[in-house]
Each structure stands twice: as C-alpha cells, then as structure tokens.
Write a structure and sequence with these properties.
This protein has about 260 residues and is an alpha+beta fold. The protein has six helices and ten strands. About 35% of the residues lie in helices and about 25% in strands. Strand 6 and strand 7 form a beta hairpin. Helix 1 runs antiparallel to helix 2. The chain is globular, with a radius of gyration of 21 Å.
C-alpha cells in the first residue's frame, strides 16, 4: 500500500472530486451530515474555520485550509473487501497518521501531531477506470473540532510513513518494494513496445503505452519538441528518468534505444 498527502487551498474542488467522480462511493463522514451536497459539506468546514477565526477573513488566515490524502492498497491486498473493510482501513490510516510526531526521514526532528480523526472529513472510494485498482480519498478540515490547526509540515512524508507502518502490521508489501515492482513492469512493457516499432514515433509510442493500460503525459518546449514525459500506473506517477536503468526511455535517448 502507498499513501500520498498534501495541504491544499481548494478543498471545495477536492470534496467534489472525491464524491462526484464516476463510480465514487461514500465510505464515511465525520462531523458532517450525509444528506447534503459536496459544496455544502465544504461550507460546513469553512463555517467551523470562521467560528474559530481561522478563515481567510481572520487576521491570521489559513490559506491551505484542507488536508488531502490518497491511500492505494494493491488489488490483491483488498480482494473480496466489503465497505466495512474500507472503513477500517481509513480509520487505521488516520489513527496511525495522528500518532506520528517526528519527520520520518529525520526522526530527531519533532513535529506536532495531527488530529485528523477529530476533524471534519470525507472519505470516498474510487476505482481506477483503466486498471480497476480501488483506492481511498480523504479530504479533512485543516482545523480540527477543537479549533486547533492540523500541522501540515512534511504531511506527504507522514502519509507515506503511515502507509508503511500499516503495511508492516498487516503483512503487506512495503511501498518502496511496490514502487520497484511497478517501475520494472513499466520498463519491460515500454521496451517491448519499442521492439515492435520499425522506427520511433511519439504518436505511436504514446498510443501503445495507453493500450497497455497506462496513462502517459508529455511535456513539450516552445518548438513543440517533447522534452519530458511521465507514466501513470494506477495512482502512481513515474517520470521517464525514473523508469529502468541507463535512462534508456528518456526523450533524449529513447529514439536510439
């Protein structure tokens, strides 16, 4: 299982995406009614921030006013799961996240604990349209129910570490091992695509990568020459420089490869 986290300034959009995306399922709520629209849920969160004088109109505004997390177990780890299992995973993740009081990459650096479990939040379940991989989205109020600000320092590191702690407890594959396996799979698929091509063509390459079930995004310069690209597998994104050895799949070397 892997997890990502960040502090954002567009909580309304995040809640709409979490709840309104095709095939999205509501997993659980905290401090919010389930009978109102996503934007009304965000309005409730902003109302709490206003009551605690932490909104944009206060003398010390909170600009990054929501926390967003994405939790992605492997398909084999969640085979046959019920909604109750997903609720337990969400609770497990938030409880583990809230227990972390140090920077994972530098344990001597102490941090204030988050209090996500005692904050207003929305948890939804999405299923990737191409890979079929299910994953959780959590959008939480940056201000907890006690009026304290959830610390967002190194929140991405904390989320990843929480996932690793859960992996260890549940006997799941660690995120770094999963990352290595994903990169190897993508590399092998891309090399197989190149072997099928009589000559290199970006249009054909992108189409064939997409047909393998990935999503590819290219970046071009002012002369419309592709200078970089990334490949998304499920909910993880890998730059071309990270895929394989010798950087054989980067735009500067892929034609020779």
């Amino acid at each position: 299982m892997i997890a990502q986290g960040d502090a954002i300034a567009h909580g309304a959009m995040a809640i709409e995406y979490a709840l309104d995306k095709e095939r999205a399922q509501l997993v659980k709520l905290n401090g919010l009614p389930d009978s109102i629209e996503p934007l009304a849920m965000w309005a409730r969160m902003m109302q709490l921030q206003h009551q605690k004088m932490k909104d944009r109109n206060s003398p010390k505004p909170i600009t990054l006013n929501a926390l967003r997390f994405e939790i992605s177990p492997a398909m084999e780890e969640t085979a046959g799961w019920t909604m109750d299992d997903w609720q337990k995973l969400a609770d497990d993740f938030m409880r583990t996240l809230d227990s972390i009081d140090y920077r994972p990459s530098k344990p001597s650096q102490k941090l204030r604990k988050t209090n996500v479990r005692n904050s207003q939040y929305v948890v939804s379940l999405h299923t990737d349209s191409k890979s079929g991989i299910p994953h959780l989205h959590i959008v939480a109020n940056r201000i907890d129910n006690m009026g304290r600000t959830n610390d967002a320092h190194y929140i991405g590191e904390r989320a990843a570490h929480a996932a690793n702690l859960i992996n260890e407890k549940r006997g799941w594959v660690q995120s770094m091992q999963r990352r290595s396996e994903n990169i190897e799979r993508i590399y092998n698929d891309c090399m197989a695509i190149l072997k099928e091509m009589p000559c290199f063509d970006w249009g054909i390459y992108c189409r064939m990568v997409t047909e393998k079930g990935y999503h590819i995004q290219t970046k071009s310069d002012n002369q419309n020459k592709i200078r970089g690209y990334s490949i998304r597998m499920g909910n993880s994104i890998y730059k071309s420089s990270e895929i394989g050895t010798g950087r054989k799949l980067m735009p500067s070397t892929i034609e020779a490869t």
